[in-house]
Amino acid sequence: MTVEVDSSAAFSEYAHPERLVSTEWLQSRLDAPGLVVVESDEDVLLYETGHIPGAVKIDWHTDLNDPVERDYIDGARFASLLGSKGISRDTTVVIYGDKSNWWAAYALWVFTLFGHEDVRLLDGGRAKWEAEGRDMVTETSTPTSVDYPVVERRDSEIRAYKDDVLAHFGNPLIDVRSPEEFSGQRTTAPAYPEEGSLRAGHIPSARSIPWGRAAAEDGTFRPLDELNALYRDEAGLKDGDSVIAYCRIGERSSHTWFVLTHLLGFESVRNYDGSWTEWGSAVRVPIVKGSEPGTAPEPR
Amino acid sequence: MTTYQLPVALAQIREDFLDLEVKDRLVLLLEFANELPELPERYAEHPDLLERVEECQSPVYIFVEVDADQIVHLHATAPMQAPTTRGFVSILAQGLAGLTVDEVLDVPDDFPDSIGLTEAVSPLRIRGMTAMLGRTKRQIREKIAA
Asked: Structure pTM?
């Protein structure tokens, strides 16, 4: 850890409190050496309308996804991206964004694929910072480029492919999409673009816990007891479980991956980023419609 | 044989975007976002008249008027927290301003793909703008059929 952790009492109950910082903590450390603040939003222009002083922008789509193949960028591109943002391998990175940190969590998850060690979320994200009337600036930050090593992505620990999901049956799956998508009434979140899934419904045996239930009204994460009620009591997760979370393209489930891994301390959680846009169009995979999870087929 | 020519304002908008480096296109899009006019009062108080563009990630509502001279007027509202969406609808509102019903219906459905923004904002996001144009045309067809 290059920059000390936020030891706020509010975070101490979580499994990995060092993964969160509060707006107060960040405000007083904006100039701290070794700290880079990253904004990552759904709306690609939001950063330009005003951002936390000194923050750099990383866009999930244009920066983190490979422009040709449906995959994340490789180690060389990641190194060049982070270096250009003034981020070194030992930099403390604090990510924040719109929509309860939905896309910020996605960026954090991609950073984790490359093993960037110290990456944290600003609890409450952009909306909380703004609501508290804290400083925002419009000029684009121009960090000095630094060297970031080329590190190969390690997908296996936190990323699941379609075949991994087929082999996972019998273990818990969490579907974090809206109830309408889960039951198969629609293939996209209400008010979101149709992304071309050919079938609607959910992966058999998946429990439905829409991602947003982990966030409070102000965009901060819910307290530990409420998260336990949601994922342990309602979804039935137990210590030691191997869990796969999915949504539509893996963004909302990154938020849930963060909650399960860093707040609740589950050690084996993977995000299936192919998610419904792959599963709902794949040939010969099992699908269940309706609001019940359905039974898990034999793993294959 | 006649070749289709894009209406002047839309052609100018396209040229302005394509003249810029990809990064600067975002700046121009933000200018459009900031130029989106407030809804006329008669609509501000009648949200029921507005149609939500479901394909957009942020709440954007449009309403199309066709006046006695068959001129189209596109009104729209979208939150300040959704500048990309505001920019898209502002491009259409400015680009279609003063056009006749037929001229708007003739605008190619893939106009949004042609202004150099797919690279800058991603193809996924551009779909929202395509949907706005599609819904605008549908509202016009409904109005002239009525």
From this structure: 0.91
